[in-house]
Amino acid sequence: MEDGSKAHRAGAVSTGRAHAKAILLGEHAVVYGTPALALPIPQLTATASAAWSGHAAENPSDLTFTMTGSASRAVTEQAFDGLRRLTAAFKAHLGVTGGPHLDVSLDGAIPPGRGLGSSAANARAIILALAGLFGRKPAEDEVFDLVQEAENLTHGRASGVDAMAVGAAAPLLFQAGRAQTLDIGCDGLFVIADSGTAGSTKEAIDLLRAGFRAAPGTEDRFMRRASRLVDDAKASLAEGEPEEFGACLTEYHDLLRGAGLSTGRIDALVDAALQAGSLGAKITGGGLGGCVLAMSRPERAGEVARRLRAAGAVQTWAVPLRRPTHER
């Protein structure tokens, strides 16, 4: 075991960063082992800093936590509770005991409850900040395991896609704890629109499971259709067929809406995106609120974003999809 009083000399202040993500296709089904496609959103970041306060901690998880931004008091208190557990898990992983009191601050631009991976990004940023403070360079699988542990505490049974995607540099295919970079054969642009209403992953999971229990065969049909759409979307991206990919997005929205996971506001945003000329649109994330993701040709993206805001979106972001440089 390493005494924290020695470890604290490794660095006076350390910073960690992570970014948001959106699920392109595969929500909910990914928890059951089917594949999912995920998109990093580098425009939205979480930045954490960790430092020693200079006086001894009374217990291994003793720390001061500051969260900047527009988070509510309830969100901040929940984040603080999670941070205490995360810090204790991190120290246990390193074998560190004791040590000075920790000061941790988190500046997050990722709105919570929107299906954008805010909790996973926050956890990853904090883990990287703590690692630097203790003079460690954990392997990527170690970081993933710690973020995943935090996600399981936050959401219940987490698939792992968020924990992986908030540190990814390119779109991913994720399945059963493993990820690979997607083959991209076309350029495009995703417009992501915040409905202004937070969703609840836990409630959505419970609702879906209740529906599966109520109607025998529903679960099998849901998983088979989800898996087919993900496979079709993956092939469309690789072959440079944006129209076919967009159609997969819209059909996956129909799947989630049929399971009761959309809302009237979300459906209105999807309709607005389609009427504005997007190639496809869907809810992204756990459901019952959150964000809409629309794929657009670059020249139509401005109009898609404008129509989404007119339909009630409180903010929008544009995330480019690009082929690898060597294919241009």
Automatic annotation (TrEMBL):
Residues 88-165 form the GHMP kinase N-terminal domain. It comes from the Bacteria. One of its GO terms (biological process) is isopentenyl diphosphate biosynthetic process, mevalonate pathway. It is an enzyme of class 2 (transferase). The lineage of its organism: Bacteria, Bacillati, Actinomycetota, Actinomycetes, Kitasatosporales. PANTHER family: MEVALONATE KINASE. One of its GO terms (molecular function) is ATP binding. Residues 235-312 form the GHMP kinase C-terminal domain. One of its GO terms (cellular component) is cytosol. It comes from Streptomyces antnestii. Keywords: ATP-binding, Cytoplasm, Kinase, Lipid biosynthesis, Lipid metabolism, Magnesium, Nucleotide-binding, Transferase. This is mevalonate kinase. Its main location: cytoplasm. It is found in: Cytoplasm. It holds the Pfam family GHMP_kinases_N.
